[in-house]
Amino acid sequence: MDGDMLYSIGELARRTGLTVKTIRFYSDRGIVAPTDRSPAGYRLYGIDAAARLDLVRTLRDLGVGLPTIRRVVDRELSLPEVAATHAEALAVQIRVLRLRHAVLTAVAERGLTAEETDLMHKLARLSVDERHRLIGDFLDAAFGSHDTAPAWAGIRRSMTPEIPDSPEAEQVRAWVEWAQLAADPDFRAGVRRMAEDHAAEQAQDDTTGPRRDLGAVVRDRVGPALAAGIAPTSHQADPIVAALAAHCADVLDSPDDTESRRRLLARLESASDPRRDRYLQLLAVINGWPAPESLGPAFNWSIEAVRVRMER
Questions:
Q1: Which residue spans of the chain are classified as CATH 1.10.1660.10?
Q2: Phi, psi at residue 11, to the nearest 5°?
């Protein structure tokens, strides 16, 4: 019967598709030992040797080392144990490769210098604790000691990146760019100003409840004007500017005067910083959120509309 047959090393090579040299290599290391020898001293192998060699080839393709393979075929280690260990090791390798791919892609796309590339590589390799410290440092700089208030706490949560344990390459690239942006002192100061303005707008009023933030007012009032093609300098824009000015005066608890409109213009200019939109875009990629709506065009429209009327 086939199970009782013995095969020369050449015959075994033909059955398995491995080279004679490879089989001899495994045989010399005791991984696939010969069953017997011919009268001339040549090695002979049983049918089980072909099954062993198939397993060895599979494990080698999966990156398992020879010492471990020998323990598996000798049944000193169970295959599930080995598979679990190597799956974990491969997961680590995949994360490293994703980081490398993300950095190299960003370098190619953004034309980075050697110094910028080095910084990006370091940011991509930060440990979980190091990432949390960097995020906390940015949020503390932006919110300071006020983040215990409900309004501030909500803003802080909405501004917090939460990169997953096994991020996609796109998330790694977004994280690195986010970290570079968050380290910019000027951007930090701008975020703090916007957070303070937003928190002021969310302050509770005894009669009307929480106020709407300026971004929501701009979106609702200016969005339709943009869609309708209304120019910020036209008379059709007058009631829209009046609504924005009234909102600002209400927040400041002051009359709608020159000073109030000056403050409105300053807040619109601060909120129109393109880095703000970029921050929110990066945050959405990192956290797996839907892409945010850009308010840049609406803020720019509002700035021109308010400025023109202040200069009249």
A1: 2-77
A2: -65, -40
Cα–Cα distance, 166 to 175 (Å, whole number): 13
pLDDT digits (tens, 9 = 90+) for 259-305: 999 999 999 998 899 999 999 999 999 999 999 989 999 999 999 99
Scan for tokens 């796309």, then name that residue: 109
Q: Pick the closest to residue 252 from 238, 265, 269, 264 (CA basis).
A: 264
What whole-number percentage of the chain has pLDDT above 70?
90
Burial class (CB in 10 A: 0-12, 13-18, 19+), 108: exposed
**Helices 128-143, 150-158: inter-axial angle, 10-degree rounding:** 140
- What CA–CA distances, in Å, run from 168 to 70, 124, 288? 36, 12, 10
Tens digit of pLDDT for each residue in 10-20?
A: 999 998 889 99
The CATH code belonging to domain 2-77 is 1.10.1660.10
Return the amino acid letter for 137: D
Q: What is the pLDDT of residues 16-75, one digit of tens each?
A: 889 999 999 988 888 888 888 888 888 898 888 888 888 888 888 888 888 888 888 888
Tokens 């495994």 locate to 26
Predicted pLDDT at 72: 83
Cβ 38 vs Cβ 8: under 8 Å: yes
